[in-house]
UniProtKB/TrEMBL annotation:
<dbReference type="InterPro" id="IPR053002">
    <property type="entry name" value="Metalloproteinase_M10B"/>
</dbReference>
<protein>
    <recommendedName>
        <fullName>Zinc metalloproteinase</fullName>
    </recommendedName>
</protein>
<dbReference type="Pfam" id="PF12044">
    <property type="entry name" value="Metallopep"/>
</dbReference>
<dbReference type="InterPro" id="IPR021917">
    <property type="entry name" value="Unchr_Zn-peptidase-like"/>
</dbReference>
Length: 365
């Protein structure tokens, strides 16, 4: 379920250059398009692996009356949100979403935080760590039932299908004196769109039990996602160093690295007292109508470390056919197999020519 989180005291507008619309409605349109692109990517890459076109359901696929992206007003203040670490943001919003009317063990959330802010320190950042040190409310984490992201580069995303290719090909240079550059050193708006959309795909993969791998979408292959949707080749996926007059820093040749590595496992258990009268509960809460105490287990929202991941980078992936394709974006054999044979929810919707990948709450961690 795509979610746009607005913290208490924030107007919901995401950071963007003056010429870009940054309203709540614009954010939701961009998120909806991005999620559909990832939905498409998942299906096509599984098909390349010989496992058929299977992908996850979006809320609007199940209920056409539902919003393509739901606005969620958090009770967490914007000031506090900007002080919390990525792990703390993930934990807080995981609790809050599951305690809300949206909470459901048969639903996974892909959420975007509106109050992400880049505050430059006066000099051009040379490393990704320096960029992160200038960020507030930035997060890119996924696991269990929640994948959550900052919106520092959301302005580079398309508002409609007609903008997808132009946005990927946008070579406008990022002004690092005012905006975040999350492009894997390409320095362009198109690079930011490719890397951040790929990052969402990567973290969403963690919610479907996938762990880190060498290369591929679950490694650092997600930076090259633009090559899937355009006719450019991997050699075009570089930038020109005007001073040295040569191409440099192709993300395809970068050493494997992660935006964030989660290194803990934590189960959250929350109890609260519901006001009387109490309606007859749904069976999943395992309590009688007379019980004043309602307990929710958030085991489906706990993050797993790469060491505990189901997909192991020790598996021989040498026969992965899509790795040899020109776009350099692929699922490893182990990841593709897990996705393709993930337990399907009982009442899944089957779209024309496309099987839908569901999930079983008992499988999440």
């Amino acid at each position: 379920m795509p979610i746009y989180i607005i913290c208490k005291g924030h107007n919901g507008e995401f950071q963007a250059p003056n010429n870009e619309e940054n309203t709540i409605q614009s954010a939701c349109r961009r998120i909806a398009v991005g999620c559909k692109l990832i939905q498409c990517l998942t299906a096509e890459k599984l098909a390349e692996s010989g496992l058929g076109r299977k992908t996850f359901q979006l809320e609007n696929d199940l209920n056409t009356q539902a919003a393509e992206c739901t606005v969620f007003h958090s009770q967490l203040s914007v000031e506090r949100a900007r002080r919390l670490s990525p792990e703390e943001l993930w934990e807080h919003f995981g609790r809050e979403l599951m305690m809300s009317p949206l909470g459901n063990n048969n639903r996974k959330f892909v959420a975007f935080l509106s109050c992400t802010r880049y505050i430059p320190n006066g000099k051009k950042p040379d490393t990704y760590e320096e960029i992160l040190s200038s960020m507030e409310g930035h997060v890119a984490l996924g696991g269990g039932g929640l994948a959550i992201f900052g919106t520092g580069c959301l302005h580079t995303w398309p508002r409609g299908v007609e903008e997808v290719v132009p946005r990927f090909l946008n070579v406008t240079q990022v002004d690092t004196q005012s905006l975040m550059d999350d492009s894997c050193f390409r320095g362009t708006y198109g690079g930011c769109f490719s890397t951040t959309l790929g990052s969402v795909c990567h973290e969403l993969g963690h919610t479907f039990d996938l762990g880190h791998t060498e290369g591929s979408i679950m490694g650092r292959g997600f930076d090259n996602l633009n090559l899937v949707f355009t006719v450019h080749t991997k050699n075009d996926n570089e930038k020109i160093d005007k001073e040295k007059n040569k191409r440099v820093s192709s993300p395809a040749s970068k050493a494997s690295a992660q935006h964030a590595t989660v290194s803990f496992t934590k189960v959250l258990n929350i109890s609260y007292r519901a006001p009387s009268p109490i309606r007859k509960p749904i069976n999943k809460f395992n309590r009688t109508p007379d019980s004043p105490k309602r307990k929710l287990s958030f085991t489906d929202l706990s993050i797993r470390s790469s060491q505990e991941s189901i997909a192991s980078d020790t598996v021989d992936e040498s026969q992965t056919t899509s790795e040899l394709s020109g776009d350099l974006t692929y699922w490893t054999k182990s990841c593709a197999t897990i996705l393709a044979f993930h337990r399907v929810q009982r009442d899944t919707l089957v779209l024309p020519k496309t099987e839908i990948l569901g999930f079983d709450p008992s499988r999440v961690h």
